[in-house]
Every structure is written in C-alpha cells, then in structure tokens.
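ingest -> validate -> predict -> emit
validate: passed (alphabet ok, no gaps, 184 aa)
predict: started
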Amino acid sequence: MTVSKLPLAVTIARLIFGPLFVLCFYIGVSAPDFLYIYVGALGYTASALTDMVDGYLARRLNSVTELGARLDPATDIINRVVGLLALDALGITPWWLFLAYAALVGQYALDTWRLKSWTFTLAKSSFGRYLAVAYDVIIAAAMIQMVIVGTTTGPYILPSFIYIALAGATVIFITDRNRSLFIS
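emit:
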C-alpha cells in the first residue's frame, strides 16, 4: 500500500471496525463482560478520533479522492447510528437522542438533494461540524462511563441535560438551516 492510499485505508478501517466495536460493547454490557466493554468503548473512541485523521492525511498527502470524500461522511453516519441504537437498546441514552440524530441525517440528505450532488454538505458548516463531533463525544463518553463506573447497571454519570442540550442544538441547527423555507 502506498502512503497516498493511507487516508482511504483509515476510512475503510473505520467503516469496518466502528460497528464491530459497538457490537463488542453491546455484547459486553449484555453479558456482562468488562473485557468486551473496554474493547468496545476504547475502540469506538479510537474510531471517532481517527475521523479527524483521515481527512487531514488526505489533504496533507494531497491524496483526496472522490471515493474518500463520499465514504468518510457515510462512515461517520453509520458509526453514529449504530452507536446510538446500541446505547438506546441498552437503556444508556434516551430514545429521542437517536431521533434527533436521525433528523440531522435527514438534513444531510436534504442538503445533498438541494445541491444536486452526492457528497454530504452539512459538515462544511462550522456548527454542523461541531454538532457531529458532539455526537461522537457523547457516544464515546456514554460508553466510557461504563468503564469508569465499573458496572453495567449504572448509575450513569452523564446527566440528562447533556442529551437535552445536544438534541436542542440539533433542532436549532436544522431550523436555522431551513429558515428560508419558512420565511417568505
């Protein structure tokens, strides 16, 4: 493998291993088996952190490809959806947090349709980028809290207002993004 293909390799590894780490975490909490919880929580966190690495490497190595530009945001969405569904199924995060993220993904699709392109555009907005990172941080923190607390039954250390703030920021972002549709 040449160095120029490294960013795409990182993205593909995230696409494969991100959901596997979430599955590992889910099995660990369900079993309960703390080795699975550790591997899943730390693996998902590493996957989320490498999200920043692949784009940086692609630009730095001058190896930006159309496939990488399309695969990276799709990988982000898949990893977050799988992570939020697992956390919801385990009762760690509220169900409506997944719905807020699903609405954000809907905004991705709407932006793509509006621009008549098949690349995701939401991340080009600074607020959208911060919002996406916030979802990664919350998912990783919700998993890591199991490692810190050392139990699969709680008490969970992330207060509900963090989830409410994230969902509220998502609603504000989507409303602001679409205000031209509501104002004549």
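The radius of gyration is 17 Å.
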